[in-house]
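TA notes. Do not distribute before section.
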Amino acid sequence: MIDGIMQGYNATVFAYGATGAGKTYTMLGTEDEPGIMMLSIGELFNQIESYSEQRDYMLKVSYVEVYNETLKDLLHPRPETLDLREDADKGICVAGVMEIMTTNTDEIMDHIRFGNKNRTKEFTMANDASSRSHAVL
């Protein structure tokens, strides 16, 4: 996946399953046992480092919640929701979403932790603070 990204392709990792199945743990992990996101981001920065003499890279991060058919910026919380729009240059994009320049894995993980605090959560029978939304980093 990272090799494809380095060649300019988009990539997606999608975690799907029932509440309590371990999606969040698989994606985020812990400090001692990092999940797919941390490992992938770390490898991405390793690849950038190895190609940095041949190419210039700019990495931006945005983090969006999809909940009840609305979009919310998790890195810049505000009451209004975001809209999907079609842009002549970017194609389909989230209008008004904050994009943050980042240079290392720790910065991205700090943004993820901040964004996760802004996610919509509700009580369920399986989980006291279940995220009731989808998140896209």
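Switch to the second chain here.
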Amino acid sequence: MPRFKPYSYNQMKLIPVQFKDQVLPGTFEYALNYIVDNELDLKIFEPRFANNITGAPAFDPAILLKIILYAYSRGITSSRRIAQCCENNIIFKALSCDTMPHFTTIANFITTMEKEISSLFRDVLLICTEMNLIGKTMFAIDGCKMPSNASKEWSGTTKDFQKKKEKIEKTIEYIMNKHRTNDGNEQLSVTMKQEEIKHVENLQKKAKKIQDWLKKNEEKIGKGGKPIKSNITDNESAKMKTSHGVIQGYNGVAAVDSKHQIIVHAEAFGAGQEHELLKPIIEGTQENFKAIEKTEEIFKEADITADSGFHTENNLKMLSEKGISAYIPDNKFRKRDSRFVTAERHKKEKKYQPKYFTAREFQYNKETGKAICPAGKELWLKCKNNVTSNGFTGAAYMGRVADCKACGKRTKCLRNPETTLARQVVFLDGGRKVQEESFTKKMIKKIETIKGRFIYSKRMGTVEPVFANIRHTIGLDRFSLRSKIKVNTQWLLYCIIHNLKKIHTFSPQMAY
């Protein structure tokens, strides 16, 4: 049998530590330490402090920034864990010079950084520009939906919350009545009674939480004028559909340069739909380059690509007015792809049976101008050549009230037979009106060209790996804060980490 030297992990050894020797050249922490000390303008944090004459000395923002960014680069976002690492981990001790800030100091620094975070992001972006990491030929825009520190169970409209409160109150009433009925029952132990009382107290807290929220907050109204879901824990977050199910969180949108996948602008939104998010991202990108390069012509030579979630007529009109070359397909883009011509034959045939009579089931003679319903009754002409749909003109016919009331096919013909008196049908037989070509059709023509499909094909390979790196490689796969301001700060910190890792990869001089 071979013999090995004995060893044990259950031992301690006191050794002298030189902090600067622990941050090894070539590592990410070395590059981070150099960049924070030499490249970032930390004077922006000075207005926070008013202790130049009185008060205790504060932690240096450089120290806090180093340990926060390093922790985020390792997928650690909890302030308690960051503080713990500063006590136990030699790299954190070296970066913080063994100052060991309390977790409340770290949490407060992160959550109150909304004024400084944009400047820090631009400082890092300036480094990327000086290193020639930004090509400025194509920017890909996309969103990354991530859960936040909010419960989707507490989402709903005012009506939903009122129903939930009533349901909780009924449950409380039921438990209390049950408790009174069985008050003298010796079979119920003291523990069972205490658990019931505790359950009632928890339900009462939930009911009070809903009541207090309803008093302080108004109903959120959507674009269509209808109520949309709010959230009690974080009312600025949104319920979003993702490939992994429904989440309660924020949509982190980023504009990424195609050369080395540098994020040039980022912002978090509490909105699942991306239709309204394109304009602020475009304007934010322009502001960033205006701040670091003093130029407003960043999109003069660059193309914009985004997926169909950003495609609307208004967005395309906005881009056209700004003179920005963009490639944003509509939602039928892939169906027009020649590679998917035979895709339908692989799908199961769906036999669609219309619930109500369609206009095709009505007989219409254009020459005589007569229309007959499926029951054989003649309709009367309500309006001729004055009805338009998609640029076509047509005539509207309507059934006689007496015929429709006595018709046995009434339920098959009318959606609301109890309130609707007679069926109306429109026959589009007129010519198409001459209309100006929409921005959507112009985009379809542009993107269907060889050049258009080539440029758009680079979108996914530009922006999707960025989100994969942030979420899966680094491990920043959720937001731990609440409210749009704080979540936006955290999203920018995530993006700063991504850009810093790019700088570390492509700039050996900053790592040695």
